[in-house]
Amino acid sequence: MIECDDTDPSVKSLAKVLLTDFDNRYAPACSDSGKVKYHREDTIGKYNRYIGIHQYFFVASFLDPRVAPLLSDMMTPDDYNMLKSDVIDFMVAKLKARSDNLFNENAPKEKSAPATQPPQNNSKRSQLKDKMFRGLNTKSLDAATATGNDPNDNDTALRAVCESELDRYLHDAINKGACAMYDENDAFNDPLKWWKENGAKYPYVANIARKYLAIPATSAPSERVWSRLARILSLRRACLSDDLVGRMMYVKENLLFLRKHYCSLRKKEMSKDLHHLVDLEFNYLIATDECDEDIDVGENDHLLDF
């Protein structure tokens, strides 16, 4: 763009500024290699901006079966091994936290609960725990945590288990092409769908993949929410309560989900003798094929005279 003769001079000037800022913030690990630099700690530079690529981006890329085979060519060997070591540390920390929680729940409780404290629903807690750790290989975890009383022995055993499983995941991703970048229709494959189908093969890796792959890659979705909120909470509607605005935004952002599951969700909240009213309520939901221009959310209020 900068070297093209047909580019407008103002566009060239802006492109040079952006390119300089990009080079300063995302300098390569080596001046001649062009490899991406891995930062363990967040570094804030001018205008409160991150310098370098955020650590979580590398972790999410490492846990993405489509991208993991490419990382070794994009990073120096030292940075790649450092990233791999950090991923193993995250896995160990996650398993240790889970082991501590299970130990605390199974430990005998003192009979000193106050009379005002409501009884806890142990069956519900056990159901939630089963859902949280569904698909995990608890046998190998128990074997790893039962090596002895020395915490260092436990950490070493857990790390060995996590490293072995991570190596299996990387071997399958690199050598067997676990998940291609594109499908047969030339569309991006979904890594979350792949982990849903293959999480049982690598339960410890999947445990942290759920955490880091769920992080939005950019702040653009949240920025769009703020923009849509500004169309609802305008000068003409400045007295709307926080609760009402929140409910309006919830319906707006989750309309597809509400239309799909509204009847089943509502019937759980109502007695059976009122279930026949749910279909009537459903008819008042906005149709998903309607355009935003057909719904008054106050986008033209700035044109009105006050």
Describe the 3D structure:
With 306 residues, the chain is mainly alpha-helical. It folds into 2 domains: 55-102 and 129-216, no CATH class; 220-300, no CATH class. The chain is built from 13 helices and no strands. The chain starts with 8 loop residues before the first helix and ends in a 24-residue tail after the last helix.
What's the helix and strand layout?
Layout: H1 9-25, H2 55-62, H3 68-74, H4 77-106, H5 122-132, H6 138-145, H7 151-175, H8 191-198, H9 203-212, H10 220-232, H11 242-253, H12 255-269, H13 278-282
What's the quick description here?
55% of the residues lie in helices and 0% in strands.
Uncertain spans, ≥5 residues at pLDDT below 50?
A: none
Main sheet makeup: none
Distance between the termini: 47 Å
- Our Rg estimate from Cα atoms comes to 26 Å
Helix content: 55-70%
**DSSP helix count?**
13
- The best one-word shape is extended
Tell me the domain tally: 2
User: Mean of the pLDDT scores?
Assistant: 77
Elements, N to C (H/E): HHHHHHHHHHHHH
Strand content: under 5%
| Structural class by SSE content | mainly alpha
Number of strands: 0
Which features characterize this protein?
306 residues, mainly alpha, 2 domains, 13 helices, 55% helix, 0% strand, extended
